[in-house]
Amino acid sequence: MTFRLTCPVCGKRDIYEFTFGGQERGPRPEQEGLSAEEHFRWVQFRMIPGGMGAGEDAGPRAGGPGQLQHEWWYHGQGCGVWFRTTRDPATNREVKDGSGEG
Ligand SMILES: [Zn+2]
Questions:
Q1: pLDDT digit string (tens) for 27-77?
Q2: Cα–Cα distance for residue pair 23/21, rounded to 1 Å
Q3: CA of 90 to the centre of ligand 1 (A)
Q4: Which of 3, 9, 19, 96 could make an S-S bridge to 92, C-beta 3.0–4.6 Å?
Q5: β strands within the chain, DSSP E
Q6: Ligand 1 centre distance from Cα of residue 73 (Å)
Q7: What does pTM read for this prediction?
Q8: Per-domain residue ranges of the chain
């Protein structure tokens, strides 16, 4: 399976140039009073597609078509920039403000 992502610096590039950085899970939790387990769970959310540990309602297959994912990607084989994109996991296509792109 292959698809392309749009780097904000380089433009459209093959997926193999990128490293998946995990789903957007919001801001880093406060360090103050954060338990090791809570921190671990937050890290896992970011590292594993689908968010292992998110509970039964948030598995990789939780959403059908149209259930968009906000994800972080790293252009390691290119400019080295981290960026966030919105993707439809059913089609592997990026989605931008309601307009399909392919
Ligand atoms: Zn780039």
A1: 777 878 888 888 777 776 655 455 444 444 444 444 455 678 889 999 999
A2: 7
A3: 24
A4: 3
A5: 4-7, 11-14, 19-23, 69-74, 82-88, 93-96, 99-100
A6: 10
A7: 0.59
A8: 4-28+35-51+67-100
